[in-house]
């Protein structure tokens, strides 16, 4: 706690994943929303090579401008968070100087997307350091980051989903024919995805078998572990947010729908962040029964992975009315155009209140086994 009695929040963003820039954009929105009369905010950037640095508290610097994506430039003083629960402080390391203690941290808001941040790694460090943090713990973060593991847990919980196959690096290197045979059994078209990436990076829709190997290699450029999913044609893409209440119980938001426009065949990275080529309909125009089914399934998916704090659950509503779970994102985008904040705003929780509730939930949970 700061001398003024404010809760000290370290907002951590950037990181080593391919979603570095989107993490920066999300963090800018969080920095702008935190009430400085209640919170002492410490912006912490992770460079693309993983170095922790003290960043400027300037949300505008973290915006996309003229199609140029922001990044942590690494010019700030180097920081270290020791994995020591008796300290819980950030230390500034300047070349040639004795390390200086910057501040003891009350809670961390890890606005990190993708590997080395959203996948349980940073969560493990924070557990070791005894510092509460926003969002899911180590296991749920790791499971949700790996689409293959996530889908196996969904299957175990009895949640309906599209057929899929996993191609590991060993499969691709030593038994490619068998891996491709499993994919062939799914039929066409299929979506080929990196197992542990987000923001639609590295995803290809394949309708021609001749393009399959190329699509797998594109996904492998982001992650050597690949998931291939049977396409649910003519399906509606429906999302639902889950947020813990004051007792930590998961509650579902209104549903929303993504309608892709323009020349984009699906909701890819450019459609999401650069081209404004998708219409986000909040709330979704669904029959009440379908909406309630999606909301109930969102909570079931949240619990199947052992999530905490928040998650965005993505579904397909097939042409025949079936509701299929696609994936769960444990740290969904927090940009001004992101679906999770928009869904909760339509449910009655505005952006600053949403951020405040997440910080309070992190402090309520603390760290350790629970």
Indicate the topology.
Layout: E1 7-14, H1 20-33, E2 39-46, E3 52-54, E4 78-81, E5 89-93, E6 100-104, E7 107-111, H2 121-129, H3 138-145, H4 147-156, E8 164-167, H5 169-174, H6 176-184, E9 190-194, E10 204-206, H7 212-220, E11 226-230, E12 236-244, E13 250-260, H8 269-274, E14 278-281, H9 288-305, E15 310-317, E16 323-329, H10 339-347, H11 351-365
Parallel strand pairs: 1-2, 1-7
Antiparallel strand pairs: 2-3, 4-5, 5-6, 8-11, 9-10, 9-11, 12-13, 12-15, 13-14, 15-16
Report on the architecture of this protein.
It is a single chain. The protein contains eleven helices and 16 strands. 31% of the residues lie in helices and 25% in strands. With 370 residues, it is α+β, with helices and mostly antiparallel strands. A five-stranded antiparallel β-sheet has the order 14-13-12-15-16. Strands 3-2-1-7 form a four-stranded mixed β-sheet. Strands 8-11-9-10 form a four-stranded antiparallel β-sheet. The model has no long low-confidence stretch (mean pLDDT 91). A hairpin with a 5-residue loop joins strand 2 and strand 3. The chain folds into three domains: 127 residues, 3-Layer(aba) Sandwich (Rossmann fold); 150 residues, ATP-grasp fold, B domain (D-amino Acid Aminotransferase, Chain A, domain 1, 2-Layer Sandwich), CATH 3.30.470; 67 residues, ATP-grasp fold, A domain (Dna Ligase, domain 1, 2-Layer Sandwich).
């Amino acid at each position: 706690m700061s001398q003024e009695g404010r809760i000290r929040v370290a907002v951590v963003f950037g990181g080593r994943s391919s979603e570095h820039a989107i993490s920066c954009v999300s963090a800018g929105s969080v920095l702008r929303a935190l009430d400085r009369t209640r919170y002492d905010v410490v912006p912490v950037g992770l460079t693309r090579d993983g170095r922790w640095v003290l960043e400027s508290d300037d949300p505008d610097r973290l915006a996309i401008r003229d199609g140029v994506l922001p990044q942590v430039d690494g010019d700030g003083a180097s920081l270290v968070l020791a994995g020591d629960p008796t300290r819980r402080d950030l230390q500034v390391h300047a070349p040639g100087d004795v390390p200086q203690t910057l501040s003891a941290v009350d809670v961390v808001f890890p606005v990190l997307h993708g590997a080395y941040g959203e996948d349980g790694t940073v969560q493990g460090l924070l557990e070791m350091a005894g510092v509460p943090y926003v969002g899911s713990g180590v296991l749920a973060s790791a499971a949700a980051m790996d689409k293959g593991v996530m889908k196996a847990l969904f299957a175990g919980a009895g949640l309906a989903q599209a057929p899929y196959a996993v191609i590991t690096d060993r499969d691709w290197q030593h038994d490619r024919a068998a891996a491709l045979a499993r994919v062939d059994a799914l039929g066409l078209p299929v979506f080929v995805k990196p197992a542990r990436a987000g923001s639609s990076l590295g995803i290809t829709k394949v309708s021609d078998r001749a393009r399959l190997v190329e699509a797998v290699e594109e996904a492998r450029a982001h992650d050597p572990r690949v998931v291939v999913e049977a396409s649910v044609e003519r399906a509606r893409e429906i999302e639902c947010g889950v947020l813990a209440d004051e007792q930590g119980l998961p509650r579902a938001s209104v549903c929303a729908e993504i309608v892709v426009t323009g020349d984009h065949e699906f909701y890819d990275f450019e459609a999401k962040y650069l081209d404004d080529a998708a219409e986000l309909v909040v709330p979704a125009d669904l029959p009440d029964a379908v909406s309630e089914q999606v909301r109930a399934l969102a909570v079931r998916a949240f619990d199947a992975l052992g999530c905490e704090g928040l998650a965005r659950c993505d579904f397909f509503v097939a042409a025949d009315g079936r509701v299929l779970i696609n994936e769960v994102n444990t740290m969904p985008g927090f940009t001004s155009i992101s679906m999770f904040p928009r869904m909760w705003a339509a449910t009655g929780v505005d952006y600053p209140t949403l951020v405040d509730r997440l910080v309070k939930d992190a402090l309520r949970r603390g760290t350790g086994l629970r």
